[in-house]
Specification:
40% of the residues lie in helices and 16% in strands. It has 336 residues and is α/β, with parallel strands linked by helices. InterPro entries: AKR, NAD(P)_OxRdtase_dom_sf, NADP_OxRdtase_dom.
């Protein structure tokens, strides 16, 4: 299915922070954030089992209960199975949820991109989300947790497992679309080169942002346009560092990133431009992009996201970024 026709509003909501990303988020704040997003016209919500070991899905499901199901688009992900077994606290401190989702549920998570695991993951997600259907299913982080070329064997498992199951479910009308939800470009490039099965699009997190977009511009974006698949941009604020946070790529931002960001901020100050507005509008300016999904657990941030889309940014701002080498000269930019 054409993602652009499915996701009508270019501004969606990324629900990773609802899984207690980096901090313990009060339940009332979760509900208030989703209420604010809904009031601002947001009708696309994305989550995943990995976010807080099911916590984000459960909270999003609770927050959307009572909303007319036909009025919003819902996506989640497969590739990680949430077990009933709890983690050993000592192992948790060393594991992948340390720092990122250390305040989430304590359930163990296993990677599994097989056909059976895909079906099980969908059933589990439907239960946590309190819904009878999913609109989009993304195959999650297929290259994220593996070293070197090890991810290629997991990609092959997904190609013969998850890819085929999701294609069948799309053909049967159980889901409307599927694709990869990743923060590396390599699996997207490989998928675009396949003859079959063909996805409807990709959720590309952090790889088409104001701070980092060069690699995606080379192959992913042109091929996406050529093949008619849509790109949903996740992580438009690069884990938060672009808008005043400490993290880039889910880790504390290093000096190189901070130095580049400060140069961007200096240009923004010179033109009286909000960097948040620049980040959102930059991502949406590419014709391959159908939606951008910033994540938040604060109602005020949801309101700021909406306002950022309407700020008029002078072309002189983008020209200065180009001249200083802060954005790729080939990257499309908004027209004032």
């Amino acid at each position: 299915m054409n993602l652009k026709s499915l996701i009508a509003n270019p501004l969606g909501h990324g629900a990773a922070p609802l899984g207690n990303m980096f901090r313990n988020v009060p339940e009332a704040e979760v509900q208030a954030t989703i209420d604010a997003a809904w009031a601002n016209g947001v009708r696309y919500y994305d989550t995943a089992p990995f976010y807080g070991a099911g916590l984000s899905e459960t909270r999003l499901g609770n927050a959307l209960v009572g909303r007319p199901r036909d009025e919003y688009v819902l996506s989640t992900k497969i590739g990680r199975i949430i077990l009933d077994e709890l983690e050993d606290p000592a192992a948790r401190e060393l594991g992948e949820k340390s720092g990122l989702f250390e305040h989430g549920n304590r359930n163990r998570i296993v990677n599994d991109y097989s056909a059976d695991a895909t079906l099980r993951s969908i059933e589990d997600s439907l239960r946590r989300l309190k819904t009878d259907r999913l609109d989009i299913v993304w195959i999650h982080d297929i290259a994220q947790d593996f070293y070197g070329d090890e991810w290629l064997s997991h990609f092959e498992t997904a190609r013969t497992g998850a890819f085929r199951v999701l294609s069948r479910l799309r053909e049967e009308g159980v889901i409307k679309a599927w694709g990869l939800g990743v923060n590396r470009v390599e699996p997207v490039e490989l998928t675009l080169d396949l003859d079959e099965p063909k996805p409807d699009g990709f959720l590309l997190a952090g790889r088409y942002s104001l701070l980092d977009h060069d690699r995606a511009l080379q192959r992913v974006m042109p091929q996406a346009i050529e093949q008619g698949v849509g790109i949903v941009v996740g992580g438009p604020y690069s884990s938060g560092v672009t808008v005043g946070g400490e993290h880039f790529e889910y880790q504390k931002a290093n000096a190189t990133v901070l130095a580049k960001l400060e140069r961007i901020r200096a240009v923004a100050r010179a033109h009286d431009v909000d960097v948040k507005a620049a980040a959102l509008q930059f991502a949406l300016a590419h014709p391959a992009v159908v939606s951008v999904i910033p994540g938040s657990t604060r109602p005020a941030h949801a309101n700021e996201d909406l306002a950022a889309l309407s700020q008029v940014i002078p072309m002189a701002f983008w020209n200065d970024l180009r001249q200083q080498g802060l954005i790729n000269a080939l990257a499309p930019v908004p027209t004032a």
